[in-house]
Amino acid sequence: MKNDFRSRNHPAYWAFIVHRLSGVLLALFLPLHFWALGQALQGAAALDGFLRWTEQPLVKFAETGLVLLLAAHMAGGLRLLALEFLEWREWQKTLLAIAAGVSLVAGLAFLLNLV
Amino acid sequence: MENLKVRIWRGAEEGGFQEFEVPRQESQTVLDVVTYVQRKCDPTLAYRFACRVGVCGSCAMTVNGQSRWTCRTHVSKVAADNRLEIAPLRNLPVVKDLVTDMREFFDKWARARGRFTGSKTRKDEFERVSPESKERKRVDAGIECIGCGVCYSACDVVTWNKDYLGPAALNRAWTLVNDVRDTARAERLAAVAGDAGCHACHTHLNCTERCPKGLSPTAGIAGLKRAVLAATLSGEI
Q1: In this structure, how many other beta carbons lie within 10 angstroms of the beta carbon of residue B73?
Q2: B206 contact residues in A (CB cutoff 8 A)
Q3: pLDDT bucket at A89, cuts 50 / 70 / 90
Q4: pLDDT(A113) > 90
Q5: Do B154 and A7 touch (CB under 8 A)?
Q6: What fold characterizes domain B4-100?
């Protein structure tokens, strides 16, 4: 028999899910990112046109999500490195809270900068 | 007090839950509930226990979806709305009802070289190991394992990779890697270094979350990863 969500419903597993999902979503975003950069090859006007499009409020708001994903993936990665390379026992949940806090602060800072 | 509604797994791999009503009592443990069912409702119910006080590690089951030792799990802690769902441990073949076949679990301890290998005889002096030494403290952090299989049952990597040695065997290997008297360090590190060894751990911390003894196999596995890396770089393995 296999475990279901009741077995996995604890903070460290949620951290794993967030790390994995943010990684997949960022990987999906990468082709779009490269495409955007590739606009520069068509000349300055093409890139500027695209950049103007990104100035729209809705796109900026979506960018906040992107920043949040990046921050969560980085903080989660640093947390894993700390777990793997440092001697630790009791403070793994503190580390998790710090990683979550850092991600939210980064996302919020970006959002506040927009307003 | 209201009666408990208890659903208990019957059968082997194929089977289903059977419902029983069990009188609720003060300070009742989940093992008390299973014992009541076997003695008063259906004597054909198969389950395991021995010490009833959290020492022997034989009564672990899945209680409301979570792997637990049942002898020291109070009903008051886990029975939301007076309901209990009791199933055998996960990731192990079910023999009957709540009894699992623990062979692969213990075979993996052997594969992880979980046996102490010393160089001294009874005629030699005792080895002096300071309780303050770094190695001894690492051993202390992992040595209280009772072999109940809760971590093995809770581990997703075991589900994904049937060859994965699992948290308990790797925790055992880590305590021996830190045993200064042991002489099989290199062989042990080689034994836990493969695809199904310490590097397969995804750091979900399911084992750490569920270990009834409050141990952290994940910490030991992380230690093994570092030790294997160091041994590889230095040419020890």
Answers
A1: 23
A2: 7-8, 10, 12-13
A3: low
A4: no
A5: yes
A6: Ubiquitin-like (UB roll) (3.10.20)
